[in-house]
Amino acid sequence: MKKVLKNVSFVILLLKMCIVLGQETSTQKRIVIDVGHGGKDSGAIGVNGIQEKDVVFDIANAILKLNNKMEKPLDIYLTRYSDTLISLSDRTKLAKTLNADLFLSLHCNHSDNPNARGIEVYVANATSQYSKDATWLAFQLQAAFSKELGFETRGVKFSNFQVLRETISYCASVLLELGFLSNRDEAEYLKQQENVFALALSILNSLQNRKMKL
Question: Which among 13, 79, 168, 212 has the fewest CB atoms less than 10 Å away?
Answer without folding.
Answer: 212
